[in-house]
Inverse folding.
């Protein structure tokens, strides 16, 4: 009996010691605070820290996000001090100057940001400079920051070259940091060559914008599918026959109406073709500004339609890819409650980004790829994923605490089949 009693006491002591040891260990959030306070850590190194992979509660994820955003802003204010105080951005060999003007008073939630792209195009620098100067005073706002960039080049496609996406990502992030811009009220519009840019950029950058408006431009090879969650306006003169802009606008009016009819939850649009106007619409198109202002960005829409362009993106709303796909593949995904359905995906792999604003991460999340259930389990929230999603986009309103990486089940099935079944001709008789 005494021996049993001693063994029991020893067992209780070991359990108590283990519990005390666990209690002495700092939580992931406490470790995060210490990382910035004691070590003055670089936010870019967060994902490599052991605490960044620990599972978080909903409340801890909220606290961690606030800490990360504060540290991120402070760090970028130091790293980009000269850039934030200036009026020019530089990426690679190109520079983009910009003009800024304030209208009205800043709302409590932060300024609205309107990015306005001037006309011109494939002509001399002097002509494009004149178009930029004219655009600085062309439109007025009720409230917001009116920002007019000068195109980095003087080419015909000056507003939709690959580096323009990078310039605008950086411009938006900088204005969030330095001018207290509300990231959910960023708008893009442009005239003539600037309108060409809107046709191309708005589908590519739809998840960064609240609404967009195209004036007197040409769509080129732009596709409309990705505009599902972005209100989109078109204003063109009925007599604007150059490059058939009027005909293209009419085509897009039909295209957007058909998309809306097929999917009434999306594709909000307003197309105005002024019968008596040519390329210059006498500012009738200015009504697009208050129309855009009615909308806030949809950060986490229930359905996402993502058509890749010639300029590739790795993330779009709550979808992401690690490898930039070839061609212009389409991905269509929907979420409802705790279920996510990948309805169409012309990619080999896909990642789903989630947070507590989208669903309950304390419960299982089920994912169907086509007709196949590919996953049904709880997904851990981590500081590492919060930091990664903030750093890759510089968008504090679209942070995700968890990531689900998936492989196309069609690819897995093909790899597991014998050569004959998978379509290989190596073992087939001639």
């Amino acid at each position: 009996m005494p021996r049993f009693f001693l063994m029991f006491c020893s067992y209780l002591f070991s359990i108590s010691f283990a519990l005390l040891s666990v209690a002495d260990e700092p939580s992931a959030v406490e470790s995060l605070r210490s990382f910035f306070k004691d070590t003055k850590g670089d936010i870019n190194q967060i994902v490599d820290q052991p605490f960044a992979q620990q599972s978080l509660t909903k409340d801890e994820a909220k606290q961690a996000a606030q800490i990360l955003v504060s540290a991120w802003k402070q760090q970028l204010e130091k790293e980009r001090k000269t850039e934030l105080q200036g009026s020019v951005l530089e990426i690679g060999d190109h520079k983009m100057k910009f003009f800024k003007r304030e209208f009205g008073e800043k709302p409590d939630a932060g300024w609205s940001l309107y990015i306005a792209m001037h006309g011109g195009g494939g002509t001399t620098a002097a002509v494009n400079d004149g178009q930029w100067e004219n655009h600085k005073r062309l439109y007025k706002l009720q409230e917001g920051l009116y920002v007019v960039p000068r195109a980095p080049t003087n080419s015909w496609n000056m507003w939709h070259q690959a580096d323009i996406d990078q310039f605008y990502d950086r411009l938006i992030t900088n204005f969030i940091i330095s001018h207290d811009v509300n990231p959910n009220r960023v708008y893009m519009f442009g005239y003539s060559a600037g309108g060409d840019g809107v046709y191309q950029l708005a589908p590519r950058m739809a998840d960064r914008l609240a609404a967009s408006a195209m004036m007197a431009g040409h769509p080129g090879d732009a596709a409309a599918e990705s505009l599902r969650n972005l209100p989109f306006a078109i204003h063109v003169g009925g007599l604007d026959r150059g490059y058939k802009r009027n005909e293209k606008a009419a085509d897009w009016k039909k295209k957007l109406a058909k998309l809306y009819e097929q999917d009434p939850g999306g594709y909000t649009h307003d197309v105005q073709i002024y019968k008596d106007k040519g390329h210059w619409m006498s500012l009738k198109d200015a009504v697009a500004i208050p129309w855009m202002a009615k909308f806030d960005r949809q950060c986490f829409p229930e359905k996402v339609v993502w058509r890749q362009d010639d300029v590739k993106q790795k993330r779009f709303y709550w979808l992401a890819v690690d490898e930039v796909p070839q061609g212009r593949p389409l991905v269509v995904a929907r979420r409802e409650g705790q279920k996510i359905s990948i309805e169409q995906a012309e990619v080999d792999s896909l990642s789903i980004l989630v947070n507590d604003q989208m669903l309950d991460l304390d419960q299982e999340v089920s994912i169907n790829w086509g007709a196949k259930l590919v996953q049904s389990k709880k997904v851990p929230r981590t500081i590492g994923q919060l930091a990664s999603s903030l750093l890759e986009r510089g968008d504090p309103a679209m942070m995700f605490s968890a990531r689900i990486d998936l492989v196309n089940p069609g690819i897995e099935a093909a790899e597991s089949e014998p050569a004959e079944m998978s379509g290989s001709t190596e073992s087939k008789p001639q």
